[in-house]
Every structure is written in structure tokens, then in C-alpha cells.
Write a structure and sequence with these properties.
The structure is a single chain. The protein is an alpha/beta fold. The chain has 3 domains: 166 residues, FAD/NAD(P)-binding domain (3-Layer(bba) Sandwich), CATH 3.50.50; 102 residues, FAD/NAD(P)-binding domain; 67 residues, Enolase-like, domain 1. Helix content is 24%, strand content 26%. Strands 3-2-1-7-15 form a 5-stranded parallel sheet. A 5-stranded antiparallel sheet has the order 17-18-21-20-19, with helices on both faces. The protein starts with a strand and ends in an 11-residue tail after the last helix.
Length: 368
């Protein structure tokens, strides 16, 4: 009977276990992770941080029993082809899936700097943020505005340092709308946070300045490392029987992706690789962010290239179109637009830019 050992149990690792069972895999499945169970990270910076009663578990204890998936709360110290080791146990494995994720970058400043990635990080900040607390948040991606939203909701006095409009590559022109909203709600300083800043005026400093792939476990194993564990389109490494998915990996000749949807999508693909089945057509990348009462979402690529057209639908939705094919879309508080755009992209539905722009035309009608 084959054995699959998954190193890391967040959404990517857990999704491999769930996907294998759904696909009829009958071999043993073991997930090794230092946490007590599989946890979802997106709610940490929003609902969980502000104290809402949110269940972070990706599955109940009974799910693991019913699906015969073994959760080992431990830390992998080394692995080689066919074997995975913790400090106290050795696991044989026909398939090893590395899903160790990423670790947050920090800033070198003359005072403590908090980072944000785990539930423990969220617990520390939830106990530290409150009315009257002055907090500086540094970053130019999705996390900084989300943390600023939650910190303000907790009553803190928030200052965001960002050298550019956050997440412009994710939301395209709509990132400017989100940025304007943020400047109206908290203080925004359009530069990097450095040692030259008067840091004494802040009670807390939080760095949301990106992540690095957690490749330490792969060092010295013979795997190719280059801004992550390098894999092919099927998420196979250069060592037979070893795969890498989610934030820790990078597909050869492509930029690394470090978002939730890629973790889930890469897990789905590696399930097909292990099972030897044909994967479905790749779905477009989907990203979302909750900021200052707004739901921002994007699917596909929303920054047009030279030969492509940018189409506006009202003030809160944009599309990138090339030869009547939809490349991507972004929207604020327009979930139906994103669902329709995903359908258009996935099914290759031809689109008319004029109809996309016409708000009197039902977006759902364009998916038929």
C-alpha cells in the first residue's frame, strides 16, 4: 500500500489529503505540522484579529478519523527520497509533498517589530491593539491595508507606511480606489518605514513587507532552490517522488505565487500527478481582500499589456480583453462580476468590450 506524507498542514497540505481521498486514493496519508490541526490563514488578519468568533479549522477531528488521515503534531527535521523524519519518528513515504508555506520578512529597526503569519502572531496583536494604541504598519501588498482595517476597528491610531499604492499588480486601476479609501480612514505616509523615522511615537510597529518561501527543510537535499523549491507544471521537483506546492514552490520560469488560491490550486494539480490522472483545465488565479468595509476581488490578470484593452464597467469593475477573450477582471463590492468573469475565462466565452462596459447589460447574460 502506498504512503503519502505531507509536510505542512495549512490549506495547501490539507487540500492534498482531502483531494487524494476524494479521488479514491487508498494508501496511507500522514500530515506532519507543528500546529494542533489544519488551520485557514485568511481570517487571521480580519475576523479573528478583531475578536470575532471564527473557526479557523479546515476540518473537524472527526473528518480525519472518517477519512483515515493521520495528523502528526510535530516538526520535520529532514527528509530524503522515501523517508521523512521528525526528532522522534521516521515515516516511510512513496510520495512526499512539501507544503511548508512561507515566513514573513521583517524590518531592521531599533525597536521590536511584529510580523503576521500565524494564529500566535494574531493572538499577540489582538492582545496588544486597542483604543489609544499608536501603531505603524509598513507594507505595500494586501496584508498592510487588512491589518490597518482591523487595527482601526480595535480603536488603534493607525499609520500606514507604503512606498506605492498597495496591490496594484493584483487589482490594477482599482487599487487606486482602495488606496483613496485607506487615506480617508487612517494616516498614510507614502514612503518606506526606515530607521530615520521617529519610531518613539509608535507603541507598535508591524512589518507586512512580504514573505520568503520556507525552504529550510529542503536545503541540502538535492532539490533545486531558486526563490522557492523549483517545480514543473505538475509540481514535481527534480527528485522523483517529491513534490512542492503552495507558497514554498515556484514553477520553473515563472514568478512565485504566494496567495491562498494558489495553495489550493497547486494541491489539486499534485493530486492528479500522484493519481496519474489528467487534470482539468487550469482555472484563473483568484485573489480577494477585505479592506475598510469593501470586498475587493480579482480573477486572472488585470494589468493590460500593449495589445490588450482595459474596459471599465462603472466605477468599481474593470476587465482586460484581448481579441474578444477575457484575460482578467477586478471588482469592488461586485461579487457577481467576478463569478461571471471566472466563467467567461474558464469556458473561453467570447466577449464584446462594449457590452462589458454597458451596465444596462446584465453581466450574467454575457456568460451564455
Amino acid at each position: 500500500m502506498p504512503n503519502t506524507v505531507i509536510i505542512g498542514g495549512s490549506v495547501a497540505g490539507f487540500s492534498v489529503a482531502a483531494g487524494l481521498r476524494d479521488a479514491g486514493y487508498t494508501g496511507a496519508i500522514t500530515i506532519i505540522d507543528p500546529h494542533e490541526t489544519a488551520l485557514d490563514r485568511p481570517p487571521l488578519s480580519t475576523d479573528y484579529l478583531v475578536g470575532d468568533d471564527v473557526d479557523l479549522a479546515l476540518a473537524s477531528d472527526s473528518w480525519f478519523v472518517e477519512n483515515n488521515v493521520t495528523w502528526v503534531q510535530d516538526t520535520v527535521v529532514r527528509f530524503s527520497r522515501g523517508n521523512v523524519e521528525t526528532a522522534s519518528q521516521t515515516f516511510q513515504a512513496d510520495h512526499i509533498v512539501i507544503a511548508t508555506g512561507a515566513t514573513p520578512k521583517t524590518l531592521e529597526l531599533p525597536k521590536p517589530v511584529y510580523t503576521f503569519r500565524t494564529r500566535a502572531d494574531a493572538d499577540v496583536l489582538r492582545n496588544s491593539l486597542g483604543p489609544g494604541v499608536c501603531v505603524a504598519i509598513a507594507g505595500g501588498g494586501l496584508l498592510a491595508p487588512e491589518l490597518a482595517t482591523s487595527a482601526q476597528q480595535l480603536g488603534a491610531q493607525v499609520t500606514v507606511f507604503t512606498p506605492h499604492i498597495p496591490a496594484g499588480e493584483v487589482f490594477g486601476e482599482l487599487a487606486e480606489t482602495l488606496y483613496t479609501t485607506m487615506t480617508q480612514r487612517v494616516k498614510v505616509i507614502p514612503r518606506r518605514l526606515t530607521v530615520d523615522e521617529d519610531l518613539d511615537r509608535f507603541d507598535l510597529v508591524i512589518a507586512a513587507v512580504g514573505v520568503e518561501p520556507a525552504v529550510q527543510i529542503a536545503e541540502g537535499t538535492g532539490l533545486i532552490l531558486d526563490d522557492g523549491i523549483v517545480v514543473d507544471e505538475a509540481y514535481r521537483t527534480n527528485v522523483a517522488g517529491v513534490y512542492a506546492i503552495g507558497d514554498v514552490c515556484r514553477i520553473h520560469n515563472q514568478p512565485r505565487q504566494d496567495h491562498w488560491d494558489h495553495g489550493r490550486a497547486s494541491a489539486t494539480r499534485v493530486v492528479h500527478t500522484i493519481m496519474g490522472t489528467e487534470p482539468p483545465a487550469r482555472t484563473p488565479q483568484w485573489v480577494w481582500s477585505d479592506q475598510f468595509g469593501h470586498d475587493a476581488q480579482a480573477v486572472g490578470r488585470v494589468v493590460p499589456r500593449a495589445h490588450e484593452h482595459l474596459v471599465h464597467r462603472g466605477d468599481n469593475a474593470i476587465f482586460v480583453v484581448s481579441d474578444q477573450q477575457l484575460i482578467g477582471a477586478a471588482a469592488i463590492d461586485e461579487q457577481l462580476v467576478i463569478r461571471a468573469a471566472t466563467r467567461m475565462i474558464t469556458r473561453g466565452i467570447a466577449v464584446d468590450p462594449e457590452q462589458l462596459a454597458d451596465t444596462s447589460v446584465s453581466i450574467r447574460q454575457l456568460t451564455r
